[in-house]
Amino acid sequence: MCVICADRAEAVAVGPCDHSEICHHCCLRLRILYRDARCPLCKADNATVYLTAAASSAPAATVAEGGAPQPQPQPHAPPPPPPPPPSFEELEAARARAPDRFYSGKRWALGVHVDKAMPDPPPALLAPGGGVAAAAALRAWQGRWRVPLHVQLLQWTSRSCPVCDPLGRNRRPFGTPKELREHLLTHGRVQCPVCVQAGRRFPLELEAHQIDDLPRHLARAHKHCAFCDEYYYGDDEMYDHMKRKHFHCGICQAAGTHHLYFA
Ligand SMILES: [Zn+2]
Ligand SMILES: [Zn+2]
Ligand SMILES: [Zn+2]
Ligand SMILES: [Zn+2]
Ligand SMILES: [Zn+2]
Ligand SMILES: [Zn+2]
Prior knowledge:
Elements: E1 11-14, E2 22-23, H1 24-33, E3 49-53, H2 88-97, E4 102-103, E5 112-115, H3 123-126, H4 131-144, H5 149-156, H6 177-186, E6 189-190, H7 193-198, E7 209-210, H8 214-221, E8 223-225, E9 230-232, H9 235-245, E10 247-248, H10 250-254, E11 261-262
Parallel strand pairs: 3-5
Antiparallel strand pairs: 1-2, 1-3, 4-5, 6-7, 8-9, 10-11
The site of one zinc ion (ZN) has 7 residues, from α1.
């Protein structure tokens, strides 16, 4: 499980510090969007990091179709726990032996090597006695990995149109944010300029709003400064703006009433 997003990580990031509790998505978000190459757990500066499949990426099929818990036949011990992901050292050795097994982009996610090898299915999915549900889970698992990890991630991070290419698969990504913005207008859509400016998400993760709906998103998702009539991304950005641009009433602050400001 990823310590940042709490997702059951399908793939993990392994750096020289050998922490592997960060998922592939959070690792790329930090490195590409936040330009932060530190390990979120120990703050080690990981110049190089590997993204590789997490062996525990699928749960055991313990629930039969229809939702009723199925008593598992247990003639033997339960299936063995999935093996931990390979260590950084093992991955470095694997890359020295077989450089082609790894993808790294010249201008994409510097220092990141993505393991292209199709992982072995989790032991839980291969355990005998799982029946139809386990077979379906195994097929779903294989379907997800049919596209190699580096291709999945290049698509996920690509500057593509969320309307006509929501999975980033079909066409060349746009070269600049402006090109994407102009293309979206041909659909009558816009991405929120405050969200885009904040740079917390990849283009395909941002909703393409109908132009008329943008004010509703701004009011719902962001903080409005009534003095400037500008929107700020969240509480932190709003607070910074208020501190920098507007006066703060010292009397209120002393009385414990914070966040009251004057233009
Ligand atoms: Zn994560
Ligand atoms: Zn670490
Ligand atoms: Zn489009
Ligand atoms: Zn927004
Ligand atoms: Zn203001
Ligand atoms: Zn006051």
